[in-house]
Amino acid sequence: MYQEVTLDPETDPGYERVIIHNQGSGKATIFMEGKAITATWKKPSATAPQRAFYDSSGNEIPFVRGEIFMESIPTGTEVLVK
Description:
With 82 residues, this protein is mainly beta. It has no helices and six strands.
């Protein structure tokens, strides 16, 4: 999930805490069963769980059973897909 990432130097002086802006929507790349799927993530509120990703037609992408790993990537970061 590509999400805006900023640093908060005020919460704990001397440390810059990472803030991941995970509310709203944005681009995503889903790697599943040997394919890279261009997708969109949506999260309507800060308390809503992140459950669904959508393909370019707006259809929810169903995940296969098993372990799922999600990573927040700062917006503008290039991810190489081969």
